[in-house]
Structure of Serine carboxypeptidase-like 7 isoform X5:
Amino acid sequence: MANDYVSSSVLLLLLILSIFFYGHRTDSASVVEFLPGLDGPLPFELETGYIGVGEEEEVQLFYYFIKSERNPKEDPLLLWLSGGPGCSSISGLLYENGPLTVKFEVYNGTLPSLVSTTYSWTKVSSIIYLDQPVGTGFSYSKTQLVNKPSDSGEAKRIHEFLHKWLGKHQEFLPNPFYVTGDSYSGNVIPALVQEISKGNYLCCKPPINLQGYVLGNPLTESEIDSNHRIPYAHGMALISDELYESMKRICKGEYNNVDPRNTECLKLVEEFEKCIDRINESHIIAPDCEENHETPPDCYEYRYLLTTYWANYESVHRALHVNKGNGYVVTGAYLTLMTLQAVYRTI
């Protein structure tokens, strides 16, 4: 009887320890074979999970990982960072270079449907889509963050994430690695690439096989970017040759902080603004809907609304293995401020 009692006690202790261990572990990874809104199994390999970063792994970064559909052993490994700051990387997955997208149709109150794409980068590369900074998409912090978010701080967090992720996926260490992204990530990616390069030489083993980085429509420096709207608008035939040449000659490349005494330049800038008044700056062949209080279905941004609905369904959270209580995701630049309000929330 005594031995039975000891055996039972040991088993109970082991059970309690296992519950404690698995209930408190931070890093996690799960294979996803089906997604709500898509008929049948996924036609590609998808893994989702969390990687804890920070001294006590208080920041939990959520990722989607899709293996190359061609040759994952040799094809490049890409990290994709969406812009914002604060846009979930699911916007890149579903609307820029991933193998699925949300079916564009008027929302009827039910789960939006997913459809396959023909242009996915995953046909020739493996991609990690990362929700960052903390508070974006399904990434969250277990404690109140003390330091103010910064691009350099975020680069350090992502660098730590990469080493931990590769430590759990060592088969991808030899693959050529590229950092990719768009929009606001133009500020984060160069800092991250520098962080990886320094780490490869100074501190962090094994080294990341960094081969380069890709920036799509990146934010670099606000004043420079804003001034370059004028040559871009001319190159895309949004303004006339005459207006462009006059602005170049009279404004001398400075179209934002115009000297108030240069009244002729001010008039030309005003004329330019009238020319692009109804242009969607994010997608110039789509109508501009920013003045509407609600997003109508014919707006380019309506797709972000559909994705937000889809990503916040409980069935989607379960399929993606999102940590309970962290079901909050907003996609699209026009919703960025809503996302950033969640940066300091805790669960």
